[in-house]
Amino acid sequence: MFDLKGKTALVTGSTQGIGFEIARTLAAHGARVFVHGARDMAKCKSASEKIAGSTPVTADLCAPDCAEVLFAKTGEVDILVLNASIQYKKAWDEYTAEEFDSQIGCNLRASYLLMKKYAEGMKKRGFGRIVTLGSCNQYNQHPELSLYAATKAAQYKLVKNIAPALAPFGVTVNNIAPGAIATPRNAEIYEDGERRAAVEEKIPAGRFGTPTDIAPAVLLLCSEEGAYITGSEIVIDGGLSLK
Ligand SMILES: NC(=O)c1ccc[n+]([C@@H]2O[C@H](COP(=O)([O-])OP(=O)(O)OC[C@H]3O[C@@H](n4cnc5c(N)ncnc54)[C@H](OP(=O)(O)O)[C@@H]3O)[C@@H](O)[C@H]2O)c1
Asked: Three-class SS string for the chain?
């Protein structure tokens, strides 16, 4: 089960955190993996060195030509995991135009452009797996995540609309919605006992999730065994969104 030998995978934003664990898991199941980061090739290489057989690639997903740039470096892939994102925590009326553009650019426009670019080849080959990383903030309200939440909700709407268009070609499109996961992004909260306890109090499972709570679900969606799952979402949040 879950054999990805012969498959090529691109995991965006896999220099650390959830993306790194997804890349590691797909590689451990036989996929040839591209580890991707924004601009820092040394950081990307160092992550890639921890995943045998992987290849490091960088491309800033805020750039309007990101899909062309990245495709020129990877060529066709069978599995596309859209994991990279930017999150600025601010009150809804405090975002600068630049912060607005970069969040929309990386979290939404890049997802659309990359799906469009890589899906063509997947359709021709009759096999493809696209997984987006959303967030339980698609559903929950948070005073400092209005714009981030909007990008994730919009990305999920793309998934729901693109999935039926690609299903006849053996290409599935699904979303994973994590809750609070311990990654470098929220290390400041996670490593502060008091702030961490305040978050954990809201999680029915009583703890932060880890990247290893997320990666197995992505593996299922990317495998042959996941062929009949499309347009779906797996919420992985220890019950956070139920409260
Ligand atoms: N952690 C959570 O609690 C949580 C909860 C819900 C949803 N999520 C979602 O899960 C995904 C992974 O989260 P995470 O916490 O593991 O993230 P993270 O630790 O902040 O890592 C972000 C990754 O995205 C890449 N990235 C950032 N800006 C980029 C850009 N402009 N162009 C290309 N790549 C860029 C980073 O590359 P560099 O290293 O090169 O900068 C890094 O590899 C994200 O989509 C996030 O929104 C996370």
From this structure: CCCCCCCEEEECCCCCHHHHHHHHHHHHCCCEEEEEECCCHHHHHHHHCCCCCCEEEECCCCCCCHHHHHHHHHCCCCEEEECCCCCCCCCCCCCCHHHHHHHHHHHHHHHHHHHHHHHHHHHHHCCEEEEEECCHHHCCCCCCCHHHHHHHHHHHHHHHHHHHHHHHHCEEEEEEEECCECCHHHHHHHCCHHHHHHHHCCCCCCCCECHHHHHHHHHHHHCHHHCCCCCCEEEECCCHHHC
